[in-house]
Design goal:
This protein is an alpha/beta fold. Helices cover 38% and strands 22% of the residues.
Length: 195
């Protein structure tokens, strides 16, 4: 999987990594920064996606599409990632990322508020949540009944933004339908596996 990353995807990943690194040090406004995952988190997401059962694969919070690229590496033939982004500038960056990386047939980008668009989704095998932290609990509540047995919810920033997402973490830990684990990779990945 990782040894098969295309030249185009590698180039785009490096480009986005450079922008993200610059954003973190040059005073770029919070909503304009990419705020993307580190590569080790991307690899973890790809491995998780490759191990999930049949069902829909979704991402809440595309940004410029960096994490979408990693997740797409784990998709089996015929599967497609549905990714949602609300900020128009980031939607355009994500479109460019998917086009330049030649993955438009594997990633479908939806512009708008996931909480308004999720009704048509059912039987979720994999969900990566990396949106505004005050929305994590609402996202969990919107999808938890739709996760198939063996399916995963992965919530980013579970260590560095724990205080903002602890409501979602507490709800998941007290939901007997899920086994949960906090993995200290990147900024902390909170994993919920449906029994």
């Amino acid at each position: 999987m990782f040894s098969e990353i295309s030249k185009e995807m590698k180039e785009r990943m490096r480009y986005l990594e450079q922008i993200d690194a610059k954003d973190r040090t040059d005073g770029t406004e919070r909503f304009k920064r990419l705020r993307q995952i580190p590569p080790e988190t991307g690899k973890l997401l790809a491995l998780f996606a490759a191990s999930c059962p049949d069902g829909e694969y979704i991402e809440v919070g595309s940004s410029a599409g960096y994490s979408s690229l990693w997740i797409s590496l784990g998709l089996r033939n015929g599967l497609k990632l549905k990714t949602y982004e609300i900020l128009p500038d980031k939607v355009e960056l994500a479109k460019e990322t998917f086009r330049l990386s030649k993955v438009t047939e594997r990633i479908e980008l939806f512009e708008g508020d996931f909480l308004q668009l999720h009704q048509s989704i059912s039987k979720i095998a994999f969900c990566f949540i990396d949106c505004e932290k005050d929305l994590y609990l609402k996202c969990f509540e919107a999808i938890s009944n739709k996760i198939v047995s063996g399916g995963l919810i992965v919530a980013d920033n579970a260590i560095n933004h724990y205080e903002y997402i602890k409501g979602m973490i507490n709800k998941a830990e007290n939901d007997n339908r899920f086994d949960t684990l906090l993995i200290p990779i990147g900024k902390g990945e909170f994993i919920c596996r449906r029994k």
